[in-house]
Amino acid sequence: MTTVLLPTTHRALDHLLAAEQSAARLPSVVAGLVRDGELVWTGAAGTTGVDTGPGADTQYRVGSITKTFVAAAVLRLVEDGLVALEDPVRAHLPELDTEGVGRVGVGQLLGQAGGVQAETDGPWWERTPGGDWDALLPLLGGSALRHRPGTRFHYSNLGFGVLGELVGRVRGEDWRRVVQAQFLDPLGMTRTTLRPQQPAARGLAVHPWADVVLPEPEHDAGAMAPAGQVWSTVADLARWATVVAGTSTVLRPGTVEAMWEPQSVDDPRGGAWTAGYGLGLQLWNVAGRRHAGHSGSMPGFVAMLRVDVATGDGVVALTNSTTGFGDLPARLLAALTDAEPHRPAPWVPHDVPADVLELVGPWYWGPAPLVVRASAHGFELRGLEGRGRASRFVRAGEGVWRGLDGYYAGELLRPVRTPDGAVGHLDLASFRLTRTPYDPAADVPGGVDPRGWTPLA
C-alpha cells in the first residue's frame, strides 16, 4: 500500500528544507524521506549552478556514501565464501607488506578499526586526480598503521581504497563493474555513476564572510575512488536506503544485521556511545534508537543517507556546498516520525510449534526470574523486572537453539527432558534454568541446600 503523507506534513518538511537552505547559505539542497520502501516526500531549494533546478533526479557527488557500496560488495564476497572477515588483507592482495596494511583484517578495515592512516600521503587527494593501484601501493607499508589493528576507531579513506582493490582482485573485474552488476542494476539505480551525468549539480565553496561562491574541482580519484567517487540522486539513494534498512534482497538479512553491529565506537571522551561504525556503515545512537547509514563529503558537496533501524524510515539529503547542512537530515527524519508515527501492526494469532509452546512462560536462573516468549522465528528470553540477560533464539537443529544477540549470541540452549518426556530444565551455556528458583529436582550445579528456603538464621 502506498504511503501518502498529510499536506501539513509536506508543508512542515518543505519549510525545514527552505529554512536550512537560507540559513546555511546552501547553493542548492535536495532531500527525500523513505517509508515502507517508498520515497514518500522530496523537496528542493536553491540553484545547482547549471541550467536546471535541483530535484530528486539531479546528481550530486555523494562522497563517502560510496563506502557503503564497496562494503556491500565485500560482504557479498563473504556470503559467497570467497573472503572471510577474519582474513588478513594480504591473503587476497599478496603484494601488501606483512608489517603494514597487509596484516589488517578485512573486517577491521570495514569497521574502521584497522588503525590505518586517514588520508594518503602527499597532495590533498580529494582535490587532485588520483593515481592507480601501483601508485597507492607504496603508501601501504608499516608507516600506514597509526594504531594497533582492532584496538580503536580510526576513520580511514585509505583503507577503503584497499577494499575496492580487494573486491576487484577477487572478482576478476573492476570494483565499479561489480557494484553495477550486483547492486545498481538489480535496484534500478540508473542515475548512480562514477562521474557526473547531467542534470548534475556543480560543486561550490561558499565564502565564509561574503555571499559569493567558488567552483570546486571534479576528477577521477583513481585508486582512492572507492572512498568517495560516486555521484547519485535522491531517487536512487532512496532505493539504496532499503538495503541499509534490511528490506532489500540484494544482501541477506543476516548480512545487513551484521553491518548494524558496532565494530568500533567513535567516542573519545567515554560515556554512552553516540556514534560508531559497523561493517561499512556509520551508526548513531539516538536516545537508545539505532540509526545506520553514511555521511559523505567531497569538495563542493555534502551528502547523508540515514535509516532508523527499528522502523525502516530513512532520509537522504544532498547539497552542492563544501560546508554542508548540519543536522538537517536528522531533523527531517524526526519531523516525519513526530508528525506521522508508524501505525502499530495489528495483533493476529499465528502458529507456534509444540516444542516452542512448551518452553514459554517463567524460568529462573538461580533466584533471578526470566521469561520465554514465542516469536515469529523461535523464542525470546528476557529478564523480568528489568534485569537479566536477554537474547533471541532460533532453531539450530533437533532440540537445539542458538542465540542471535546479546550475551548469548552464538551460544546454544538445549531443553533437557525428564524420563516422562516433559522439559525439566534448560541448559544454556552451562547455566541451568529451572521452572522454580533453584529447583532441587533439576540437578542444579553445586547442589541445593537440603534445608531449602528458610528465614535468615
TrEMBL record:
It comes from the Bacteria. This is CubicO group peptidase (Beta-lactamase class C family). Residues 16-331 form the Beta-lactamase-related domain. It comes from Kineococcus aurantiacus. Pfam families: Beta-lactamase (PF00144), DUF7586 (PF24491). InterPro entries: AmpC-like (IPR050491), Beta-lactam-related (IPR001466), Beta-lactam/transpept-like (IPR012338), DUF7586 (IPR056008). Coiled coil: none annotated. Residues 352-435 form the DUF7586 domain.
